[in-house]
Specification:
single chain; about 625 residues; alpha+beta; nine-stranded mixed sheet; five-stranded antiparallel sheet; 11 helices; 17 strands; about 50% helix; disordered N terminus
Length: about 625
């Protein structure tokens, strides 16, 4: 007596055969097979209006691992009137599915002749098992990949992977136009805790049907996992149909308006960064001019300070000479010692010449200092007076977060420039006092020089010596001149000391200005790159709404309206094809049948036992 499970399997197989027979008579499909060696001019598959469109249903038997073993094409014709046609296909054999008539088949062509209107079916067994898609089905038990025949009857955590890839060696029409519907039946008595991402689940009796959809032109990697008891798997069915659907898109104006706001904001950011870069360029020019002026100013101070040593030495010599002359004249007791007085005029003239040269040198130094100081003040004044608040700095960081390091350098340079301007403002009175202090010194030197020359001209020659009264008057004048020059020499020493201090400070200012100018140059270069990047970003994002519309159009292209005109799967020479459909099916994986229990030898029977068995 058969077990209940065996009877159910038999009924299930019987139902499956009935469904397959129904599909055989109703489904339609298309595929382009290799051309056969036939004449170039062939009779078309349908002539005029004598035949309706040809339908093709392609059936393929796959192994449990997804390899195609055999391909069968059911060709269906609607003969509207009596007539004949030639249908092409690379078949190893053909079979009439409509009546018992023998088909005229040879050389890759089937010649059909209809005596009356009818719907006609015939099957062709394809020579090649190639399909527009390649399938690879793998199985693993508790993380270890295994073969389905070995997995059958085992228990544990099972994972099934179904990979679908476009067959690049085949006609791309089907892969680009057809959608795959993959259905995996799982017996819920065997499979528990099922996980199948992306699958649509349906119940059919005690089976859980997992349906996967693969869109045209795409590859798929589908995964199913479950806890399994005594693994068995029914046939996996794959249907391929032309993909066509009507889609009504929602109103996307809110989305595109949002992108318009984004592009406007990016455009404003680009304009702001460009203005910032232009301002930084002007700041850089001012900083470079400031640095150049500071260098000239420092060079003038250095030159002025370098001449002060000679100026101090000459003044000291003049002061000593005047004191010596005054002391010498005061020591003369009478006119008998005035014989040497005749030598004094040339000495006084020499002193006057020295004072004139000193005054000329100071005049040149004052002119150089004035030019340097003016250049420094012009450059300093080019630093903007406005102040940048911390709120503005924070807003700048927020507007360009990717340029934070460059912006920090710019802000630091701004603060350094502000510091330099403040320092110069404090030292400006000292700089301004240099020229006014030099002018009276130069004037006083000229006065002293003139007095010396006048004295030299007034002194008598050796032949006309003065009397005692004139001599006393001369001694008094020279003594007074010596005292005045001694005070002048002390003031000159203090002035040259101030010039030295100022020259040292000017050097520090020049170095600081040069450093700030270098930092501003780096910031300007960084802002120029930022402006270029912002401009490119603006150019790209300005076209973003249009690109979004284009991409939406691409995504929906081919998803609405009528499908493309079908082509024959059997042979490209077949025309007037109405529809093509693929029905692919793997063989089931069944657990091995347990061995039948051994038949034990019957015990020795009595006559009554045999009689009882006879009537029962």
């Amino acid at each position: 007596m058969k077990s209940l499970k065996s009877i159910k399997k038999f009924l299930k197989s019987l139902v499956g055969l009935a469904i397959a027979a129904a599909l055989l008579l109703t489904c339609s499909l298309a595929f382009a097979a290799p051309e056969d060696d036939v004449a170039e001019e062939a009779v078309p598959s349908a002539v005029g209006e004598s035949f309706g469109g040809k339908e093709e249903v392609v059936y393929a038997s796959l192994t449990p691992t997804g390899r195609a073993e055999a391909v069968y094409i059911v060709n269906i014709f609607n003969a509207l009137t009596a007539g004949g046609l030639t249908d092409y296909g690379d078949y190893s054999a053909v079979k009439n599915l409509t009546d018992l008539a023998t088909l005229d088949f040879g050389g890759g062509a089937v010649n059909l002749n209809f005596t009356e209107p009818q719907r006609f079916y015939y099957q062709g067994n394809a020579v090649s098992a190639a399909l527009p898609w390649d399938f690879a089905i793998t199985y693993s038990l508790n993380g270890q990949q295994t073969l389905p025949e070995i997995l059958a009857g085992k228990s544990g955590r099972v994972e099934i992977s179904i990979k679908s890839t476009v067959n690049a060696a085949y006609d791309s029409y089907f892969a680009d136009s057809y959608m795959l519907q993959i259905t995996v039946p799982l017996d819920t008595e065997i499979f528990k805790n099922i996980t199948a991402q992306g699958a649509t689940e349906a119940n059919s009796g005690r089976d859980k049907l997992l349906n996967f959809t693969v869109l045209p032109g795409t590859n798929a990697n589908l995964r199913i996992s479950a806890d399994v008891t005594e693994f068995e798997l029914g046939a996996i069915e794959i249907a391929a149909l032309p993909f066509s659907m009507d889609i009504t898109l929602p109103d996307l104006s809110a989305l595109t308006d949002g992108f318009d706001q984004l592009t406007d904001a990016v455009s404003q950011l680009s304009d702001g960064v460009t203005l910032l870069s232009d301002g930084a360029t002007e700041l850089r020019a001012g900083a470079e001019e400031l640095s150049s002026g500071a260098v000239s100013f420092t060079q003038g101070l250095t030159q002025l300070d370098g001449g002060t040593d000679a100026l101090n030495a000459g003044s000291s010599q003049i002061n000593a000479a005047l004191q010596q002359v005054a002391a010498g004249l005061g020591a003369v007791p009478d006119l008998s010692g005035l014989a040497e007085l005749g030598k004094l005029p040339p000495t006084l003239t020499t002193l006057a010449d020295g004072l004139d040269k000193m005054a000329q040198g100071l005049t040149q130094l004052e002119a150089g200092f004035s030019l340097g100081n003016a250049a420094l003040e012009t450059a300093i004044n080019m630093i903007p007076d406005g102040e940048i608040s911390e709120t503005q700095v924070a807003a700048l960081y927020a507007a360009a977060p990717n340029m934070r390091e460059t912006l920090e350098t710019l802000v630091n340079s701004y603060y350094a420039a502000a510091t330099i301007k403040g320092t110069y403002a404090s030292a400006k009175p000292a700089f301004a006092a240099v020229s006014p202090a030099l002018e009276p010194i130069i004037t006083q030197l000229g006065t002293i020089s003139g007095a010396l020359r006048l004295m030299a001209d007034s002194l008598p020659s050796a032949e006309a010596l003065p009397d005692a009264a004139q001599l006393q008057q001369l001694i008094g004048g020279i003594t007074q001149l010596s005292a005045q020059y001694s005070a002048f020499d002390s003031g000159l020493q203090a002035y040259t000391g101030g010039v030295a201090t100022l020259a040292a400070q000017g050097s520090a200012v020049s170095d600081g200005v040069a450093e700030v100018a270098g930092g501003i140059a780096e910031v300007t270069d960084g802002l120029a790159e930022l402006a270029d990047g912002a401009k490119k970003l603006d150019d790209e994002t300005s076209k973003l709404p249009e690109r979004i519309d284009e991409e939406i159009a691409k995504l929906t292209d081919g998803m609405s309206g009528e499908a493309a005109q079908p082509v024959s799967f059997a042979d490209a020479r077949n025309t007037n094809v109405a529809s093509v459909q693929f029905v692919l099916r793997t063989s089931a994986v069944t657990a091995p049948t347990p061995p039948a229990p051994p038949i034990t030898a019957a015990e020795s029977e009595t006559f009554w036992d045999r009689l009882w068995a006879l009537f029962n």
